[in-house]
Amino acid sequence: MKTIDQRLDALRERMRREHLAAFIFPSTDPHSGEYVPDHWKGREWISGFSGSAGTAVVTQTAAALWTDSRYFIAAEEQLTGTEFRLMKQRMAGTPSIAQWLAEELRESDSTEVGLDGMTNTYQEVCELKQDLRKRGGFTVRTNFDPLETLWKDRPEIPTRPVEMQPIELSGEETRSKLKRIRQALRSLHADGTLLSTLDDIAWTLNLRGCDVHCNPVFVAYLLISSHRTTLYINKVKLSAEILSYLTEQGVDVDDYENVADGLRHYSEYNILIDPTATCYTLARQVACQEVIFETSPVAEMKAVKNEAEIRGFRQAMLKDGIAMVKFLRWLQPAVKAGGQTERTLDEKLTSLRASQPLFRGVSFDTIVGYEAHGAIVHYEATAETDAVVEPRGWVLIDSGAQYEDGTTDITRTIALGPITDEQRRVYTLVLKGFLQLAMCKFPDGTTGTQLDILARQALWREGLNYFHGTGHGVGAYLNVHEGPQQVRMEWRPAAFHAGMTITDEPGVYLPGRFGVRIENTLLTIPGKTTEFGAFLEFDSLTLCPIDTTPIIVSLLSDDELAFFNHYHRRVEEVLSPHLEPEEQVWLKEATKPLTR
After folding, report:
1. What is the largest CA-CA distance in the chain?
2. Are 429 and 344 in contact, with CB atoms under 8 Å apart?
3. Which of 594, 590, 539, 593 is nearest to 325 (CA)?
4. Considering only CA atoms, which of 51, 102, 101 is closest in space to residue 79?
5. In this model, does residue 1 exceed pLDDT 70?
6. Given this model, what pLDDT does residue 557 score?
7. Are 300 and 484 in contact (CB under 8 A)?
8. Per-residue pLDDT band at 378 (split at 50, 70, 90)
9. Closest to 473 in 3D by CA, of 452, 437, 501, 447
10. Number of C-alpha atoms within 13 angstroms, CB side, residue 419?
11. Segments in 91-248 forming alpha helices (H)
């Protein structure tokens, strides 16, 4: 594409003047965000690829983009007509960035690779430096951002106002959270820490914002020492009420741009810096005696929901379930009547959610994938791709909402008419994995990697698989993707404890044909305590019927069938009192027990 070609030409000219052989553009920002304000979407600007995960690398003669399996199909389409070559992460034959650079720069006069130290984490830069040094003595320069001059209409950093999260929803005062954070830091022999991740800051301060699309967070840093807490933020975002509240909670306020100076003048003996969440430039600014590079304790503290947050989740899921039932009841007749597309389905579902109390927006851009589009894991319909939805086959809808009392994330695959035997079989195998994870009981401290096989075993027996994670944490009116707990094939050491949320979302995607995913958000709750210790189990927060039309009941075990029917009975009992009579009739039919 002409625009991308022009940007690459301009970049390469700047690289020549700076004697750089290559430049690396990550998908993140100075706060290690998955979803970032437009100001930091440099990778999208230079490549045209809009996915939330990926890294673009440009040399004087080549360009490549690395992304994961969620975006393989979308990236192929968006990179078409540009110089960028798609690199499929974790697929056989795909080189790492360092391997590719070493090969591409073999004949280069320069051995210097550039990246912006403000948008790459300390750990990423250190690992890249070591890897490139081994592969030919390449060096990494971190103090240059070409976008400052090349991106002429670059959006400003947002200045939208910050809001309070009421104590009846947060469940704990900021003073108390800061006390617990300091106690956790002392157990790690640390005097203080810098919080860069925006959801950690919002949770700690019981504040919310709207600086990031779909995520109620605000751009800031929080520097915590043993005796002082300083919020670095653009002060125009703070009302007199918020400033008074922060003072009351023992939090000072300074300008966002002064965070590096604050680190240089940090007066404690040592500081904890999370190398996976703190950008390289700021990590290097600390001037105290010792830097402890360790995982921040705040993410795990935030992940364990208190009673008020759990109560809020249940309220939000009830509202979401009501909206989903209204939508599902409307869906098939509307499709049969004609005139519906992927985007009109999205608009209808969003409007039903928006009518619920405390609705604040969607928690991510809704995925409505009809038939073959369902095989594109993070598909988003555009004016060019918007497919007409017909009364045949099925549609995959992955959606969620931000309510002030909780965040939702749900996927349903819905048959709209005749479907194939292959679709029915794949759907049932995915459902088996979904049920096995939802049913499991496990010792406190089990990791998500240990649980992942439960969701995949029925698929693996048939030679099927999926390449995204099986589950992620969900924030309490915060980011829809939250950690540290995850369920996935790759090793993740974070342990599960009561109070943690997790999604349960296995799937199968057959490019050009169809995709299936079923997803609920679960809450980890206490189970039995035996001579072998405390056990945990999952309770479904999501309340919404699962389409029974495609299910091959004979493939379900007795336990799976009983669990499925019990879930549907609960959905009907909880949601029905909040529905209109005709909606109650529809729900009763949609949740009637399956029999052999």
Report:
1. 75
2. no
3. 590
4. 51
5. no
6. 98
7. yes
8. confident
9. 501
10. 29
11. 97-104, 122-134, 147-150, 167-170, 174-187, 198-205, 240-248
Q: Give per-residue pLDDT as tens, 74-123.
A: 899 899 999 999 999 989 999 999 999 999 998 888 989 999 999 999 99
CA 397 centroid distance within chain: 17
**First-to-last CA distance in the chain?**
56
Rounded to whole angstroms, the Cα distance separating 338 from 389 reads 8
Q: How far is Cα 277 from Cα 294, in angstroms, rounded to an integer? A: 10
Sheet holding 367-370, edge to edge: 367-370, 394-399, 410-415
Q: Residue 392 carries which DSSP code?
A: S
Query: Tokens 């909880």 appear where?
Result: 574
Across the strands, what pairs with 369?
Answer: 396
Contacts of 97 (CB under 8 A, 6+ apart): 24, 55, 57, 66, 128
For residue 260, pLDDT beyond 80: yes
Phi/psi at 498 (5° precision): -60, 140
Classified as helix, coil or strand, 194 is: strand
Each residue's pLDDT tens digit, 559-582: 999 999 999 999 999 999 999 999
pLDDT above 80 for 463: yes
- Supply the pLDDT for residue 437: 98
Radius of gyration of the CA atoms of the chain, in A: 25
Instruction: Report all structural domains of the chain as residue ranges with CATH numbers, in order of start.
Output: 2-150 (3.40.350.10), 163-298 (3.40.350.10), 307-590 (3.90.230.10)
Q: Give the 3-state secondary structure of residue 540.
A: strand
Is 559 in a helix, a strand, or coil?
Answer: helix
| Cα 176 from Cα 187, distance rounded (Å) | 17
Q: Which of 451, 568, 455, 467 is nearest to 509 (CA)?
A: 467
Measured CA to CA, the distance from residue 221 to residue 53 in angstroms comes to: 23
Q: Is 279 helix (H, G, I), strand (E, B) or coil?
A: strand
Determine the angle formed by the axes of helices 307-337 and 581-590, rounding to 10 degrees.
90
Quickly tell me which residue has 């920002």 as its tokens: 29
Average confidence (pLDDT) over 133-153: 93
In the predicted model, is pLDDT for residue 221 greater than 90? yes
